[in-house]
Specification:
Blueprint (H helix, E strand, L loop, with lengths): L30 H35 L3 H31 L12 H8 L3 E9 L3 E5 L6 E3 L1 E5 L3 H5 L5 E2 L10 E5 H5 L11 E4 L3 E9 L11 E6 L18 E5 L9 H5 L1 H10 L8 H6 L33
Parallel strand pairs: 4-9, 6-8
Antiparallel strand pairs: 1-4, 1-10, 2-3, 2-7, 5-8, 6-9, 7-8
Helix pairs in contact: 1-2
Length: 328
């Protein structure tokens, strides 16, 4: 919404919301909000400074005509005011830079996966997730709800990317159609026998209807997907189809062709900023260049991480699933 991302963070305390409860929240600016704030503040301060400078020049002009002590005092006062204005502007610029602290994200924007597949022949496959926290799930025709703690949207390429097989269903079609989902064995058995799972209808949060198209084994406890019990078809999630480069909500995995060298991919990957992000920003700031974007204190550095490097407790990237470890 206007460059802002709305996120509801799941809290697994076992409590359910009741009428009259309030959801605690905090507002964090999106890319466009941050840019607007940064630029509008700078623009206002710059305008004020230029006005002061203009007034100073007029006063100096008058001083040539008025050589009296009063004229000199007035000009010196204008000079002091202008110097203070320039100091404020300098401070504002520094604050803009200071406020854009480096944040390391494990998520990118929705269209990036498709753009990499289109632009780079060395990318063989791409697959995205979109975490949705917990969901209340019930089988159609029943009143029993079961809370599933970890639910996500996933691209249909998920099975090929990670080599996941299905106990029931077909990996080639399981997550292709909107409104379909795949459950883990444990999640499926809460509602029906897994042999009869495919074709069953489930309601999520009493609003969204999904058809079960597959059942898979539970993820290992040392998997970054551990505790995820339901994967829903990404094709049914409208946000995933938006050409929105300002919000970063999608953990994205790529598989390179065997001959590709990942270290040689980092520089071409960074060119996506100028090719996609800046044109998107220009919708809101016509004419802004990548150089101006960076000079204003905003930057975006894309990089890759090997799947095998997600291991053991260490620095956690924002949006990351879980560390891979056999200790919970």
């Amino acid at each position: 919404m206007g460059g802002n991302a709305l996120a509801i963070v799941n809290v697994e305390d076992g409590d359910f919301a009741k009428p009259g409860d309030f959801i605690e929240s905090e507002v964090k600016p999106g890319l466009i909000t941050s840019l607007k704030s940064n630029f509008s503040g700078l623009s206002s301060d710059l305008d004020s400074t230029l006005r002061s400078a203009d007034t100073l020049m007029n006063s100096l002009n008058d001083l040539v005509i008025d050589e009296s002590n009063q004229g000199l005092k007035s000009t010196i006062a204008e000079l002091n005011a202008s110097l203070k204005s320039f100091q404020v502007l300098s401070s504002t610029v520094q604050n803009v830079i200071d406020q854009n602290d480096e944040k390391e994200l494990a998520e990118v924007s929705a269209p990036m996966a498709g753009a990499m597949m289109k632009d780079y022949p060395q990318v063989e496959l791409a697959s995205r997730f979109r975490n949705r926290g917990s969901k209340l799930v019930r089988r159609s025709g029943t009143e029993l709800y079961v809370k599933e703690p970890r639910v996500a949207f996933a691209d249909s390429t998920f099975f090929e990317m990670f080599g996941v097989e299905l106990l029931q269903g077909d990996t080639k079609t399981a997550l292709v159609k909107p409104g379909t989902l795949v459950l883990t064995k444990t999640a499926a058995e809460k509602h029906f026998n897994i042999e009869n799972a495919v074709g069953q209808i489930l309601l999520l949060d009493n609003n969204d209807t999904y058809e079960v198209t597959g059942v898979m084994n539970d993820f290992p406890k040392n998997s970054f997907l551990r505790n995820h019990t339901i994967l829903m078809a990404m094709s049914g999630y409208d946000d995933s189809k938006e050409d929105e480069w300002g919000n970063h909500n999608y953990p994205t995995f790529i598989k390179m062709v065997p001959t590709a060298k990942i270290e040689e991919f980092q520089e071409p990957l960074q060119t996506m900023v100028g090719r996609y992000v800046i044109p998107w920003v220009q919708q809101f700031f016509p004419g802004i260049t990548e150089e101006q974007f960076i000079a204003s204190g905003n930057y975006l550095n894309f990089s890759t991480m090997p799947l095998t490097d997600i291991h053991l407790p260490r620095h956690l990237f924002i949006g990351e699933f879980f560390w891979i470890t056999d200790k919970l």
